[in-house]
Amino acid sequence: MTTVPDDIAHGSKAVTEGLKKMYISKIKPLEKKFAFEEFHSPLLSEADFDAKPTILMIGQYSVGKTSFIEYLLGEKFPGSRVGPEPTTDRFCAVMYGDEERIVPGNALAVSPDLPYGGLSMFGTSFLNKFEASQLPCKQLEHMTVIDTPGILSGEKQRISRGYDFVQVAKWFAERADMVLLLFDAHKLDISDEFQRVIEVLKGHDDKIRCVLNKSDQIDQQKLMRVYVCT
């Protein structure tokens, strides 16, 4: 991985510190006065400004989200499971840590050093399906990756989650620096829930990238057909 020059790193930190001070002294008091958090989103904390760049992974089940993250990191992360059937049933923040461990969602939401306090508004049902996977991986010194549950079709899947998956995905997308939408070249059908997620991503076009996974497993003619469909 390319090392960021010291002058760029220091300049970036100075800009972040300046924005944080401006928000705390000028903008946050106005948000409190007009109860901004009651109709839009929670107030930002210092952890929101100090957080590392975040990559959000979204896709239907078995498109290779977890495998993609493992390839990106060059190793497996605690709690990762890979298989042909849905294996990831929770949101997982894959982040740097001095040792390998899994941190439950309730602890993440109350930690003043992490930018996940706003997720408390989705309730205990969601926090029970949220966790952090920490490991001493060099790539994670510069970023955090959010792995998400595989999206299935049908109304039953939406109800069985116990929380509003689409709104949670929107919350993460608003704060992510990049959103990767993964598609399987063998099955391009988009479920109703995935369609709703794509709808709430409107306005974030500049940070969305589409990844056509497993495209090396189909011939050129089928690949052209996939290109036309997308």
TrEMBL record:
Gene3D superfamilies: 1.10.268.20, P-loop containing nucleotide triphosphate hydrolases. It comes from the Eukaryota. Pfam families: EHD_N, MMR_HSR1. Residues 49-230 form the Dynamin-type G domain. One of its GO terms (molecular function) is GTP binding. SUPFAM superfamilies: P-loop containing nucleoside triphosphate hydrolases (SSF52540). InterPro entries: Dynamin (IPR022812), EHD_N (IPR031692), G_DYNAMIN_dom (IPR030381), GTP-bd (IPR006073), P-loop_NTPase (IPR027417), TRAFAC_Dynamin-like_GTPase (IPR051943). Coiled coil: none annotated. This is Dynamin-type G domain-containing protein.
